[in-house]
Specification:
The chain is mainly β. Helix content is about 0%, strand content about 40%. Strands 1, 2, 4, 7 and 8 form a five-stranded mixed sheet that branches. The chain has a five-stranded mixed sheet with strand order 20-19-27-26-22, with no helix packed on it. Strands 10-17-16-13 form a four-stranded mixed sheet.
């Protein structure tokens, strides 16, 4: 207070002046001098984030270069709004904006800073993405059930937060989905075989893998196909082109006479891509049996000694050259014809020859 007194005769006047002062709350907005709002990255452009309400008697200015931020400030409404789309995955996640406030008529030295720190929060706006659209695997058909094998499959999610980027995998239902299972729903680099493979019946199969992030309220997913090529392995026995053959020879045929067999005997390796050569013999590996001899390479049968029987049944065996444990059998029924007789006929139809116990299942007799 400043006073002065004017002495004029008996009169003394006293005047008092008060200098304006800034109280502690003169430029204080409702949220205080510092605020830390969070905004979702999917906030729409134009949305008002906050209003810096410092009163009509204040002058408010922005000290931060807003052009380097995704925000705008309206000096009239004092509203801070979103100017462009946010993306927490590829842009800044925190922004600091400084406002300077002072009461009208006061010098700049009497101003107050107001700080706003904005954090952009992640939302689940990115689906899982596989490193490839399609994957290829090869498995031998003799791979044991419950075998675990590694894969190169992988998916990623660009979202930052774990709740948005955690990926769970599953095998979608399909014609071959029951051949495999996952060891862990959160890992796709390992699969387990749960059903026996068979190259001869299914040489190739495709399954579809689903990747999904479903920990948040938004569920996003993608898929990738896995083609499994089944590798042919030696799991099949040689097979004759039929199970029972009929042969004919004259009763007075000399040694070396070829037995007429219709159709000619022929066997092949049932493992198509391996196709191992086979050798022929009579059952138990014999070349000579019941007056006949067999050529190990061609399966040609010849008379070796006089034949007294009218009908001879012989089990013929085809054995893989590279694996003696793999063999197949067929029945050869040779009818010995009289010199003046016509072509023989079976007395009963169908004809059911007797065969050794050891080959009954193979010949189905």
């Amino acid at each position: 207070m400043t006073g002065w007194c004017l002495h004029f005769a008996w009169l003394c006047l006293t005047a008092t002046f008060f200098a304006p002062t800034v109280t502690g709350d003169s430029c204080r907005p409702s949220f205080g001098y510092e605020t830390f709002p969070n905004i979702r990255e999917d906030t729409k452009v134009g949305n008002v984030l906050l209003v810096v309400d410092t009163g009509n008697d204040s002058v408010l200015s922005v000290e931060t270069n807003l052009s380097a931020t995704p925000f705008d400030f309206d000096n009239q409404t004092r509203a801070l709004s979103l100017r462009k789309t946010l993306d927490s995955e590829y842009g800044e996640q925190t922004f600091r904006i400084i406002f300077k406030c002072k009461l009208q008529g006061l010098p700049d030295s009497a101003s107050t800073n107001i700080g706003v720190t904005i954090s952009v929060t992640d939302v689940n706006d990115n689906p899982p993405v596989f490193t490839q659209c399609c994957y290829n695997l090869s498995l031998g058909e003799m791979t044991r059930v419950n075998t675990t094998f590694s894969t190169s499959m992988r998916a990623t999610d660009a979202d930052k937060d774990y709740s948005n980027n955690a990926i769970y995998y599953s095998i979608l239902p399909g014609p071959y989905s029951n051949y495999f299972s996952l060891l862990d729903r959160m890992k796709i680099n390992e699969l387990r075989l749960v059903r026996q493979l068979d190259y001869e019946s299914v040489p190739s199969m495709t399954i579809t893998i689903l990747a999904v992030n479903d920990m948040s309220d938004i569920r996003l997913n993608s898929t990738a196909d896995v083609t499994i090529t089944v590798v042919d392995e030696d799991d099949q026995n040689p097979v004759f082109n039929q199970t029972i053959y009929q042969g004919y020879v004259q009763e007075n045929a000399s040694r070396g006479t070829i037995v007429t067999i219709t159709p000619p005997m022929f066997a092949y390796d049932a493992d198509k891509t391996i196709n191992s050569p086979v050798t022929y013999s009579f059952h138990d590996g014999q070349d000579l049996l019941n007056g006949f001899q067999i050529n190990r390479t061609t399966a040609e049968v010849r008379v070796d000694s006089p034949i007294s029987a009218t009908t001879v049944s012989i089990v013929v065996q085809a054995t893989q050259v590279d694996n003696p444990t793999r063999y197949g059998v067929a029945m050869l029924v040779v009818t010995v014809q009289g010199a003046s007789l016509s072509a023989p006929q079976f007395l009963q139809t169908p004809f059911s020859p007797r065969c050794p116990k050891t080959v009954r299942s193979a010949l189905r007799c």
